[in-house]
Amino acid sequence: MADYRPWIPDSAHIDGVVERAATGILQDWSQDWFASYGGVRLNGLLSLRDTDTGGGKNDAPNAGIAIDAPAATRQAFADIALDRKPGKRADTPADRRLLAALGDRLFADLESRVADIFGQPETGVQPAAGPCVRIPVSDAAKRNGFSIGISIDRVAAFRRAAAAQSDRRSEPVTSRVPIAAAAVVDLAANLGAARISLHALADLEIGDVILLDRKAEDGVALHMAGRPEPLLSGHIVDRGQNIELNIAL
Amino acid sequence: MTSFPNGTDIVEPASDTEQPPGKNGTAHTLAAKQDSIFAAVEVDIDARLGNVSLPVSELLALSRDSVLTLDRTITDPVDLRVNGAVVARGEIVTVDDNFAVRITEIVDPA
After folding, report:
1. Which of B59, B87, B94 sits opposite A216 (nearest CB)?
2. Distance (Å, whole) CA A78 – CA A131
């Protein structure tokens, strides 16, 4: 490990990364950035993934932001945490705990600012096991350090915010974020919900009727990316084929 | 849960007046209190009619009376989901002006 040098992100570069995440992500949209991600969960927001082996099992399903890091970067974090000289390698559970703690500290600023932009993850509600956008990050010497993976729903939330901001400015969104306009979003049509006891749930039988909380006259609620508040509503149109919803806004 | 004369059960939202299980001092494990726990713990169950994917440009262009086509037909059953997992399917009905779902299939969690 003759040329081993710890990789340490500098705050100015992190500023650039966050700015890129905030404004450049829509312009730099690329299918190449989509990737399944998994990794070692550090906490509810961040996870590290070993990019040397192409990632491991997906045990960070609820992390909102994933950091893909090669072994050298992860080792550097461990070295710093242990205050030991570079090259003295170890990969023990204690190391991993320190790595996690250090990861929290090193990325606290980045985490908070990215979270400000993309929102906090909804722990246990919105698994991020699906595709995510990856933002490669290099250090001041242009060496690859890690990449940040942000789940698609976070990006979708950012797009909605950008669209709302554009609307307030009375500017057509498509003129400002043309690539975002081509991105595809998923909407879920929900009839409503009910809160029932586990006892009632366990006793459900064919023929039982679940009474929902939504008036039929209010139509069907359309939700985006698992968000609790409906984006739109619509009324069912029966034309004998697929269900069509007449949008009521 | 209430029953209609025809035998149909209506599962209504859990009552706020239901009390959590008390300490009776007789149970050695919580399993012995399963019934009272099951009666006290509530879950949200939602009814999913279908989904639709569309570009952001089309989403932003939606206006009143626009039409969105879902990925289900009118004859497809509605999914009843708990924490995103489908637990049952059924057909749309209305009860007291509200949407409701009559269960036609219980989904095996396995």
Report:
1. B94
2. 28
Range in A23-37, B18-32, B38-52, B91-105 the model is least confident about: A23-37
ipTM of the predicted assembly exceeds 0.85: no
Interface contacts (A, B; CB < 8 Å): 223
Hey, what are A235's tokens? 């009324």
A89 vs chain B: nearest CA distance in angstroms? 43
CA distance A237 to A56: 46
- What pLDDT does B62 receive? 83
Amino acid at A101: A
Determine contact: B108 vs chain A, CB below 8 A. Answer: no
Cβ atoms A119, A154 nearer than 8 A: yes
Q: Chain centroid to CA B75: how far?
A: 19
Residues A42 and A68: beta-carbon distance below 8 Å: no
The helix/strand/coil state of B93 is strand
pLDDT at residue B105, as a whole number: 94
Distance CA B48, CA A214 (A): 13
Strands (E), B1-110: 2-3, 9-11, 42-55, 67-73, 78-82, 85-95, 98-106
Interatomic CA distance for residues A12 and B45, integer angstroms: 47
Angle in degrees, 0-180, between the axes of helices A108-118 and A93-106, rounded to the nearest 10: 60
